Amino acid sequence: MSKPVINEVKALNTIAQDTKIKGNIESDGDIRIDGILVGDLDCKGRVVVGPDSRIDGIIRCTSAEIMGYVKGEISVKDLLSLKGTASITGNLTMGKLSVEPGARFVGHCKMINEEKQVPEADLDVK
User: How many Å apart are CA 66 and CA 45, to the nearest integer?
Assistant: First the structure.
């Protein structure tokens, strides 16, 4: 009889609404921020930025759901979801993008996908 497979569950880290952090955060698991972060966030899992939160720094993660304010670059390997209450000032790089009506964004947006590169079209119009 074989042993059952046990999935390793990563901890969910939460930064509460009344918390302010100055410095960088690194996490192997998922993280939700409802407070203030002045610094960079490197996460191997999912990042959720709550509606009343503020982040001033770079976010790098696998997937993200943004509902609050972010000033800085956001780099997401998979899905970046901007909810209607999101307000972002900075450049975005992601695999997939979802934007709800009402979300605000100032910056450049670049969608990347190493598996399926879209060939550049010859747009020489005469």
Answer: 14
